[in-house]
Amino acid sequence: TVNSLQLGSFDHPLSESIVLSNGTLLLEPVLPNIGLKYLDLGGLFNQTIYPGVLPQTLTSLKLSNYFNQHLIVGSLPDGIKHLKMGILFNKKLIKGVLPSKLEHLELSIHYNQPIDENGILPSGLKVLVFDLFSQYDHPIEAGVFPDSLTDLKLGQDFNQSLENLPKSIKKLTICEYLDQDYFPTIPESVEDLRLFEFSDNSVLDEEWHSGLDALKSLEISERQTLLSIPSSITRLKGFTILEESNQSYRDQLSLLHSITNLKELSVFIPHHKTLQEFEIPKQIEFLKFEALSSQLFTRTLQHCYQLHTLIFSFEYKMPILPNSLPDSLTTLVLSPNQNIPFEKDALPSGLKNLSIKGYDIPLESSHFSQSIKLLEFGYDCTQTLTENNLPPEIETLIIWGFKTKIQLPLPKTLKTIYLFSGNQTILENIELFNTLLPVIRVLNSNLLSKIFDKQCK
Hints:
Largest sheet: 20 strands, parallel
Low-confidence stretches: none
Keywords: Repeat
Mean pLDDT: 88
Distance between the termini: 34 Å
Pfam families: FNIP
InterPro entries: FNIP, LRR_dom_sf, STK_FNIP-Repeat
């Protein structure tokens, strides 16, 4: 039984015409009709889909970027829960054409047909996504978007009122309106708000979040200025410390420190800005420097006794100084551009998970905290990993490098090695590979990219 099928350069009818002896015309499906749940019609498919042709067992369907045919009522199996349209699709959706059990619908860049009747969108739809660069810009009529909808993403061309959105909306993504002085009224039910594609001079005043008492997560554009942030926020992404803005530097810091419930923070620090007078709020548990090239000083994190995860951006190339990281830290991700040796005792004694993707200098086990259990090396690593230069209590290794080598013996605590499938240095060493067979897992880049975060949870 085939559960998943992905077609490549396929552009043929999904059925064959058969004429019976009595003149009856039958359409014989060409796809397996037993057990198939996921179907990706590739990159070129642009044929009419007739009723009864697609397997009734489908739960997920992805149409090709070239597909731009009218959908016929009954052509999409009723059990489909996830449907993704391709780039060129721009045909009006009519009542009954979408599967009644559909929960997730994605419409791409060129879709710009009005969704203006009750019943076009299934009553159980939970997620509706318009591409970030979508051309869709039509009024939202009352009752057209179902009350089941919890997640809505609107593209950069959308410039309509949001007053008719259902009260069920929890997650909302919008872009800047053409009239930069206008900010739409956000439904009070929204808990996660993402403001994308806002211009450098965009300013949201103290009233923009009036009534948004349920708001917990906020993501903003890199150079967007907020004069006020709801105190209910626990997650903030995109906050930028600007010297040339509508707020003074100290006002911005004061605003950041005023969000007393904030636990997760992603912050941009301009290249020219020193961190000597910058202190991260003490209650932060997760911190990511999206842009940072100046030295991280002891003062920056000195009061962050609850910080457990710290991620550095691509720009950070400075050394990690002793006592600059709090002892509470358990996960550290260094910049891929950082290739500077750790100073002695620079890493916290309780650190468990470490990603050093840009590191390619001679290693010693003394470089690492003894507490480290998970260690990730990047593409640039050409070192030979062995017992003498790995943490003594290491349990999991993630190796991205094409030329990273392994030499026995390895620490006895090592349970799993996740290896990039492009590392022929290890894969072609048959004797070594057979020895490591009980612990080694060979993965492609897509699967390997998910391992570190998954292991950290």
